[in-house]
Amino acid sequence: MRYQFRNNTPILPILLLCLLFATPANGIAAQDAIPSEIIAKSIVDIERSISRLQPLVENAGKATDADADGDAEALVFRLDQRIIRLIADIAKLARHTALLPEENPDRLMLQERLRKDLSSTSQLLSLHIQELDERISVYNEKARAVTEAEKYTLQAHVNGLEALRLGFYTSLVDLVETRETLGLSAQVLRKEAESLFYQHAEIISARIELFRSTLQEMNKRLTLDASNTGMQGAANEIKMAHALDVSRLESLLKLMTRLDIDTVLYRSVLLRESSGISIRLFDSEAVKQTMEDSWENVSEAVSRNLPDLLLKFLAFLLILFVFRALSHIAKRLVSSALNKSTSNFSSLLKDVLTSTSGAIVMLVGILVALSQIGVSLGPALAGLGVAGFIVGFALQDTLGNFAAGGMILFYRPYDVDDFVEVAGAIGLVKKMTLVSTTINTFDNQTVIIPNSKIWGDVIKNVTAQKTRRVDLEFGISYSDDIEKTERILREIVESHEKVLTSPAPNIRLHNLGDSSVNYIVRPWTKTPDYWEVYWDITREVKMRFDRDGISIPFPQRDVHVHQQDA
Question: pTM of the full predicted structure?
């Protein structure tokens, strides 16, 4: 019995297999219980598939005779699926048969029946694959001459037929393996499958490469015209078709691997894609082939574009060199202007303004140089913005120091060479940055303090004022002459060359202590001379008091002893 399609291509001569499996399942011997039960189940599955195939073939023939396109095509599509399942069941039966002992009568019977009909099954499957290829070509032609809505419907149908074709390829591999399992020659069928698979792999690989180059070109144009919705829609369609072909090629390579067909060339195609790739494709040969292809492409591109690349590279270096020189000039000009300015700028502000001016000029130079070699500045600046956000989030403490440094820069609570007391450290400020302040203590230790610690605490700037008052206190004995003492203290203070006359020194009898009469001596001097005046006056007071017979008492206690008569 043979059914015909419209182009007189045989649809299902494979139904001749129905006669092969007429033996009921319970006719299997039970010498090996488990294998025999498995074989019996396989035969039952095949008989069920055949029973469902027969009415489906008849309905497909009636629909074709009635010229009912929709029903006929749907039934033929369903029929193809049933055929693929039937051949898979036959292959499974052959594998189970091979598990039986060689002298098992069930094995001998099934092997004989399978040998008789596997040859015709292979021929019929080849014819069916050819007929399916013709149907795919017909629908592809129709898709080029229909409206947009109909085109999507036809493309979906073609995708279904492509999946069926891979199913028939799987059946072809199953038949090759079945024949070899039964000890039959499969050389002719292997060569046919190899030729068919190579041809189809070449077509899919070519489409993948074409889609990739087309997408690259369209993406370049979309970067220049992002509002082109028509081009964006076309690019999305190409992406979907590209993804389908990548998936199909991977499925095909799995079948080729089952037949030990060399697939290195096609695996290298998949390795260049970004999705849909199985880890099994990553072997040394495929990677080697991919690297060779990539090197050839790079070599060709370099040889073709080498003069332009050299010119752009030289222009890039020249622009960077020029702007580097301009950066140094800008820093010198800004530094000179700040030093000559009558405004009282802090050292930190001068350093920041000087370095910032040079950095801005250099940044402009880098952007100009990048534009000369074809780098789009828009995405680069957007990327810098994202990177800045990430870096800022990761460096919160450092940015806090920057903020505190900015506040110190603006309010200027101290400057370089000021004597300060900050964050528990006392000494001279030797260096200031936006991040930290370096202090040298009087015993020559270097202390580096983060600016956030300084700005959040009390800042004491000892040298912020030009003049300072020197606070001294001296005590004399209760028996000494007060007027003489006052005259001596005033002579000592007024005779020192670094004591200021304005504000005038203040010398007063301050209090009457337990053991001494205490005077305060408070002369004024310039801030840098503070300690010299302090030490000189203290020394001179001791020497004059000794010469003039004025004693400096020390704490003493009188002890009175009373004796009581017994």
Answer: 0.43
